[in-house]
Amino acid sequence: MKVIFMGTPDFAENILKDLSKEHDIVLCVTQPDKESGRGKDIHYSPVKNWAIEHDVPVFQPEKIRSQEAIDHLSNIDADVIVVAAFGQILPKEILFMKRFGSVNVHASLLPKYRGASPIQWAIMNGDEFTGITTMKMGEGLDDGDILLQEKIRIEDNETGGSLFEKLSLLGGTLINETLSGLEKGTVKARPQEHDKATKVGLIKKEMGHIDFKKSALDIERMMRAFNPWPSAWAIFQKKVIKLWSAKVIGELPYDAVEEAKGLELSPGTIIRSRDILYVKTGFSYLMLLSIQVEGKKRMAVADFLRGHDIKTGDSLA
User: Fold this and answer.
1) In the predicted model, is pLDDT for residue 308 greater than 90?
2) Cβ–Cβ < 8 Å for 191, 38
3) Where are the beta strands (DSSP E) in 107-173?
């Protein structure tokens, strides 16, 4: 098939790579370039970088709903539009423009987790499974008819980054199966169960600020979900400290109990036992495994403690 591909981040690029092995990518549509860093260097999206490397034309509309964008795409000879994490809502004039319409690759088992952050929320909610859905795009948010789905298990140590990578690779395989099935007439669309849908919005940096009144389990899941971005963080001695990994502890071991004897342990209180740090939460404790202080590199807690004076009774906020 001749494909117009719409996408922006790494997730989309991985899908594009697999798609290009079996189909002819005639145009890549991606978000406008952004300035980044102190020098305000121009930053290309991963999809644009791939397109340049493979001599594929690039289109970067400020507004995909503009008449200019609609007219431009209508003049492109293509059989289908494939969308993966593009970042703008498509108007109906584009959705149904091509022979096979527009097909979206979405990183959840729809109707669960419609919206921008399905990967993070699957981890934060402790889901056992997630997956990829390909769907015929409709005018609403991720509410189109389902074409194919593939399920994978979420591992106990899964992070947002590791699940992102797995699902992007799975998405590349599934979109090829989907387009092949559409061309042969063997893939049939089925409507979603709309009453089971959950909408999830964009993840913002401030959402990584840990509320230690929550349970240790909820915080540990959040730490994994927000790894690598925006990361889970707290304030310690007026500095931002990122908490990269931790283990949920139901009860403190004897030596830590002795260290904390006589203290009122409110959420966020640190208990230090030799080279181990525990943190009191709203329910149970976290044993911190790897952390990163503002301006320093990430390191194991035992290594961190060799150069920092932390004692029982200190707190994270």
Assistant:
1) no
2) no
3) 114-115, 129-136, 146-153
